[in-house]
Amino acid sequence: MTTEPKVRYYLGANSPSGFYSLYDQLLDPGEAEELLILKGGAGCGKSTLMGQVAARAEEQGLRVEYIRCSGDPDSLDAIILPDRHAAIVDGTAPHVVEPKLPGAVERYVNLGACYDHEGLKKVRGELEQAMKGYKGCYARAYRCLRAAAEITADRTALIQTPELEERIAKRAKGILSRECRRGGEGEGKVCQRFLSAVTHQGFLVEFGTVERQCRRVYELVDTYGLSHLLLTHILSGAAAAGWDVIACPSPLAPDRLEHLILPQLSLAFVTTGGSTTYPRHPYRRLRMDAMVDRELLRRSKARLSFSRKVSAALVEEAVSSLAQAKAMHDDLERIYNPYVDFGRVRAAAEWAVREVLGNEAEHGEEEMSTADQQE
User: Fold this and answer.
1) What is the pLDDT of residue 93?
2) pLDDT averaged over every residue in the chain
3) Where do the domains of the chain lie?
């Protein structure tokens, strides 16, 4: 029996400029009803709590959007419950979330209260040792990504001519006239999510999210970074026609679009190329490379080949550094875990279920005191 894919995105990216945050896109400020901001250090159960609440929400038939951690995709940074206009988020650095309406919408949940503070004092030296070098690994990863981005930008600039831009604009106009005729009144809403991430597991793309939300998928096969031009036209045209759009930037160039998802039309545009392939047969496949001037490609063949190899090697080095950082973080969590009261974490999860889902806890867990819950 196959399991239906979940809706998974990222709101933080390991990017050439460092950690790039889209956490201001977590909830629409005008619609937000409940936002729980979790505070607490490594191993205190933040991801565990969110996973438990998400499971209960799914049991009730509610939609859940999972926000994965780019540092560790097996861990959660947030869950969003669109049907309740609610979310729970890890509010610790680097993805700090600032309240807009504290108390009315946002509340802090202090999972640091689940630590055995006296016990942790005894292993302070081990904790300090485990933390050494962690930030250095991330700094090296960001330097590698920055160098890869510079080389990739040079490759795109080499072949992006006014004639090419005109051809792409014409293609976008044809797609819009076919797929995005006027919908509702006014403009559609645009929100941002990362569909892909550079992680310790490599470059990941959440194609299962596309499959869950869209029946029709345009695959844009792109070696030279041209899909951004097409997607920019489609984004503005679709929004102007009244359709909501999920705009997905590239973690390697957050100012450039990589994918678009239009859930109301069950329509998506995904970029593939290099080591990234779309795992299913797409509705349509556009080969962006075919629009490039053949003579220009011939003259630039050696330079383009060198650029691709070097940028790929630099991204690989960044992944290696992220893997080292992940290993150090795992060591840190192994030290912390024996000093976490997971009974209190489960109680906090039950409390969160009641607050966010509005139902009574089923297992009679004693809820944490108000002093424990809020900072």
Assistant:
1) 85
2) 91
3) 7-114+341-373, 162-292
